[in-house]
Amino acid sequence: MNLTMINFTAHGDSRGQLVAIEQLRDIPFEIKRIYYIYDTLPDVRRGFHAHKKLKQVLVCTSGKCKILLDDGREKKTVMLDKPTEGLLVTGCIWREMYDFSPGAVLMVLASEYYDEADYIRDYDTFLKCAEENATGE
Ligand code: T46
């Protein structure tokens, strides 16, 4: 599984840091939705699903958290701990988010409006979708 990390430029000066994120420039899709996850307890695990069509970039703007990515053949874990770094997640990838540090904020830039029909929440159904993706069916 190839992971794509996107690095954002920090415009720092004596006052602090600023990161600007622009669709189709910094993000390889039009951004239709932004949501963020916060106030998450340290022992909480979220996600447990894949998406059919959705593309997303995950940025931990404050604190840190881990993202488990599973393409049905391989699992990889990514630590997000920089507000200047985004993780691109496209295709049929199972994801779990965990080990949120106190005060962590996970911001997600998404290519589509919220649509429950785009979620694959059953792991066996995900495995079929992942296999179809891998074989180009
Ligand atoms: C994903 C990971 C990284 C909405 O009403 N609108 C939204 O745009 C979203 C994302 C969620 N919701 C509602 C649906 C649930 O009642 O918020 C509640 C929590 O959502 P969910 O349980 O899906 O949250 P996570 O953290 O398991 O997953 C989320 C995204 O849903 C998902 O697309 O990739 O973050």
Report on the architecture of this protein:
There is one protein chain. The protein is mainly beta. It is built from 1 helix and 10 strands. It has one helix at about 125-135; strands at about 5, 35, 45-50, 55-60, 65-70, 75-80, 85-90, 95-100, 105-110, 120. Strands 1-7-4-9-2 form a 5-stranded antiparallel β-sheet, with no helix packed on it. The longest helix is centred in the C-terminal third of the chain and has 13 residues, at about 125-135. The chain is globular and about 55 Å long. DTDP-4-keto-6-deoxyglucose (T46) binds near residues 47, 56, 108 and 114. DTDP-4-keto-6-deoxyglucose binds near residues 47, 56, 97 and 114.
Adjacency order of strands in the biggest sheet? 1-7-4-9-2
Gross morphology: globular
Termini Cα gap = 18 Å
Provide the helix percentage. Answer: under 10%
Query: How many strands appear in the DSSP assignment?
Result: 10
User: How many helical elements?
Assistant: 1
| Rg from Cα | 15 Å
What number is the mean pLDDT?
A: 97
How are helices and strands ordered from N to C? Answer: EEEEEEEEEEH
Class per helix and strand makeup: mainly beta
Uncertain runs: none
Bound compounds, please?
dTDP-4-keto-6-deoxyglucose
Question: How can the largest sheet be summarized?
Answer: 5 strands, antiparallel
Quote the beta fraction. 35-45%
